[in-house]
Amino acid sequence: MALKVIGAGMGRTGTLSLKAALEELGVGPCYHMIELLTHPEQVRYWEAASARQPVDWDGLFEGYQSAVDYPAALYYWELMEQYPEAKVILTVRDPNSWWESARETIYQAGRPAPGQEGGAPPPMPFPGDPQLFARIFGMVKRDIWEGYFGGRFEDRDYAIELFNRHTAEVRERVPADRLLVYQVQESWEPLCRFLGAPVPEGKPFPRLNDREVFRQRLQGGK
Fold this sequence. Notes:
The chain is of the alpha/beta class. It contains eleven helices and five strands; from the N terminus they run βαβαααβαβααααβαα. It has helices spanning 15-24, 33-38, 43-50, 57-60, 76-82, 95-104, 106-109, 130-148, 156-173, 188-195, 211-218, and strands spanning 5-7, 30-31, 66-67, 87-91, 179-182. Strands 2-3-1-4-5 form a five-stranded parallel β-sheet, with helices on both faces. The longest helix is centred in the middle third of the chain and has 19 residues, at 130-148. The chain starts with a strand and ends with a helix.
């Protein structure tokens, strides 16, 4: 099954809400970082991508119709080439709000808890081999915090400059007829119009993974 939708938006731009919306519209299952955390053995695919080695994208995305959030969004261009019929959705939000949200959530998620030795990530509310989770969070650190942001994510102005640069790059590289620049606050209409799908009757647009919910999940709460 080939991907029909590729998400190019950074984390904390409404990607989990978009995942739920795409699945409601029949463009699912949708791959998201949550999928990697629930299937940590898949880290081998993403480590290959990070090392610029050949990736069995069809094997990774078997059964999926869409992919959003990191790590897929980091490779939106490669996925566009692999799936030339797929449409691209760039989720965006106010840059200052994005930085504050990311700093309080995903930036904290991979950091060792106070007193932890060896720089291991905090315990995760998912079953699985701790060594696989260590590889996942090591990859996130290399790819995102040290790689993309050059170890300077805490510099608000610099991080926001890169966020805006990413938005501009996607707009420039992706053909306009294949791209939707989208804020989840816009709800169903632009998303359904872009996908040629009817607006779900009586279904509120999903609003998922706000900061407090993220913190509760990280701590193992419901």
